[in-house]
UniProtKB/TrEMBL annotation:
This is Uncharacterized protein. Residues 267-341, 441-470 have a biased composition (Low complexity). The lineage of its organism: Bacteria, Bacillati, Actinomycetota, Actinomycetes, Micrococcales. Gene3D superfamilies: Galactose-binding domain-like, Phosphorylase Kinase, domain 1, Transferase(Phosphotransferase) domain 1. It comes from the Bacteria. It comes from Oryzihumus leptocrescens. Residues 265-341, 378-398, 441-509 are annotated as: Disordered.
Length: 611
């Protein structure tokens, strides 16, 4: 925009310093607030922009949302031909897009960044604000690990996004967050709308590959959420739903260097890869866009991506594209060691290189170093001590101590056998079963008739019922449809940890029936896809509780089917569903009468198991 540059004073207060980015109708600058003597960021656009008023209104509303995960809006204004929005400065912060220029992030850091961003957007959603323009450029990570989201509602308003249904906007933000996680795991952007500085994910017949097909060490829950959301139209419905599904996450930044130091101490389990891995990996990376890779099996302890090399971000975001696999695979033999080392490797190329290296290691014997048999089968200079001192291996006769020990063992064994044989013979004719026999008891001609009520003589009436398979739950959150839509969401995941000492509790109310404010509250469970629930076992708190368990097609009480209900219950309670219960994606634990706890009345749920 003409007339704006370093040294320009905006609003008689903000001195423009350095341009951060520019597009057709807006620009972002760093600036200095001469009134409060602090650094800020400026978003400047023409005052006659067709969406200027909407953007200014969105900025004012965003300024009223208080959440440490959202970039604060400090000021808005109009001066002559410019309109401007002032946001807090984040010294040393880098966008996720900039971080991905050095390769994928560690899996647990992806979980943390995504969870923090989702929690911030959920706060905005509770105030009626949605992002709708979220990409890895809008999610920042500060030098202390703090995650911040910029542009809440503002970017969409400036782009002229009309008022949309809140449910659709919430779902759009949830999908964008899942795409953010996908990109952070794979360094590939899975959505059709391109993002500057990120290569697009390959497209298959049924969508994009799962992250585990591109990168190693992807946790199973993140992999499933990405696949369901991006390819099957399922997954989280809003940012809070996603946060509940991927919780818990680390409060501190997951440091890849620390992970590398810890794993470096582990013993190696595989042999070095032959030097042919580099050309084979390059060929595999060249074919990666045309055929899907075989998915890597999920593990309970996912391996983290290697730490990125030290270095600053590229000057141009486009410079962050991943190099070819041939440039990044480091050779492991003397010949390949002469090749120059590189700073990073994209996760997609790395996965292809690993697979190609494995195949080459199996079949590339012609390129491996020849080792003679004497070098392999080397004998120790000192003979090893026999592992069992009682077994004699030398040529000299055994000692007297060894002979006495062996004789003692044999005599003891013989005595035990004789005693057992005597006991068995003496029990014949007594009507009891043999201690060592597997046959039925011997019956005698005794006239004594066993009692008719003997439980051992009664035939079994029925076999034990076969229990249904347990149903996995992908997420849990508080449920308050008649209130603020939130009911202690942060602790709802405790009902899934299998630990009865960790409890979800509702807010405190003035009476067992919620003070007349609402009919009930509860916890909603997300099964990931429609499932048929046969039973639910609840672990409730102390005190009489009325609770009903519903199967729900959506995150509401509309169209629910009753699985079962209990009244005046406490502790463990089980409800059994009718046989005609339809499959549903959600299960709602709905409390309608709650006990007293600490002067207030609260619903409590420690654990739930579905089958």
């Amino acid at each position: 925009m003409h007339g704006l540059g370093p040294g320009t004073i905006v609003g008689d207060r903000y001195t423009v310093q350095r341009r951060l980015s520019r597009s057709r109708d807006r620009a972002r600058w760093t600036a200095h607030d001469t009134t409060l003597e602090r650094d800020v960021n400026l978003t400047v656009f023409p005052s006659d922009h067709p969406n200027a008023d909407a953007a200014m209104d969105a900025a004012r509303r965003a300024a009223g949302v208080e959440d440490s995960r959202l970039v604060r809006v400090l000021d808005v204004g109009v001066q002559d031909e410019f309109a401007w929005i002032v946001e807090e400065s984040l010294p040393g912060a880098r966008s996720v897009a900039s971080l991905l220029a050095q390769g994928g992030l560690p899996a647990e850091e992806v979980r943390r960044v995504t969870g923090e961003a989702a929690t911030g957007l959920e706060t905005g959603r509770s105030r009626g604000l949605h992002h709708q323009r979220l990409t890895p450029h809008e999610v920042m990570r500060a030098s202390d690990g703090t995650v911040k989201v910029s542009g809440l509602a503002i970017a969409a308003a400036l782009d002229g996004v009309d008022e949309v249904d809140p449910v659709e906007a919430s779902r759009a933000d949830a999908v964008a967050l899942v795409a953010l996680a996908y990109a952070a795991l794979t360094s590939r952007w899975p959505v059709d709308t391109p993002v500057e500085g990120l290569e697009a994910a390959p497209h298959l017949a049924n969508g994009v590959p799962a992250p585990s097909e591109i990168a190693a060490g992807v946790p199973g829950d993140l992999d499933a959420i990405c696949r369901l959301t991006l390819n099957e139209g399922a997954g989280p419905l809003d940012p809070g739903d996603l946060a509940a599904q991927i919780a818990p996450w680390s409060r501190e930044q997951v440091n890849p260097e620390a992970i590398a130091e810890q794993t470096a101490e582990l013993p190696a389990q595989t042999a070095p890869v032959p030097s042919t891995a580099a050309p084979a990996a390059a060929a595999a990376a060249g074919r990666a866009g045309s055929a899907p890779a075989q998915p890597a099996p999920a593990t309970s302890q996912p391996r983290m991506a290697p730490a990125p090399a030290q270095g600053g971000p590229p000057a141009d975001p486009a410079a962050g594209a991943s190099p070819t696999a041939a440039e990044t695979v480091q050779a492991t033999t003397t010949t390949a060691a002469k090749a120059p080392k590189v700073a990073k490797v994209g996760s997609f190329a790395r996965a292809a290189a690993d697979r190609a290296a494995h195949a080459t290691g199996m079949h590339g014997a012609d390129d491996t170093e020849t080792i003679s048999l004497p070098e392999v089968f080397q004998t120790a200079e000192e003979p090893e001590e026999p592992p069992l001192p009682l077994l004699h291996t030398g040529s000299e006769p055994p000692s007297g101590n060894q002979t006495r020990i062996v004789v003692t063992i044999l005599v003891g064994f013989l005595v035990v056998v004789l005693l057992l044989g005597y006991c068995g013979v003496s029990s014949i004719g007594s009507g009891s079963s043999l201690p060592l026999g597997g046959s039925a008891p011997l019956h005698t001609s005794s006239a004594t008739t066993p009692p008719a009520t003997s439980p051992s003589s009664a035939p079994p009436t029925s076999s034990a019922p076969t229990s249904s398979a347990p149903i996995a739950v992908v997420g849990a959150s508080g449920f308050d449809p008649e209130g603020d839509q939130s009911e202690k969401d942060s602790s709802a995941s405790r009902v899934l940890d299998g630990d009865p000492s960790t409890v979800w509790q509702s807010e405190g109310y003035n009476s067992p029936s919620f003070g007349g404010l609402k009919k009930g509250v509860g916890v909603i469970l997300d099964l990931g896809s429609p499932r048929t629930v046969h039973s639910a076992r609840l672990t409730l708190g102390n005190g009489p509780t009325d609770v009903t368990v519903y199967a729900a097609p959506s995150r509401s009480l509309d169209g629910v089917s009753t699985i079962g209900e209990v009244q005046g219950a406490s502790g463990s309670a089980t409800v059994t569903a009718p046989t005609d219960l339809p499959p549903s994606r959600y299960v709602i634990v709905w409390f309608t009468l709650i006990p007293q706890d600490g002067g207030r009345y609260r619903a409590s749920l420690a654990d739930i198991k579905l089958s």
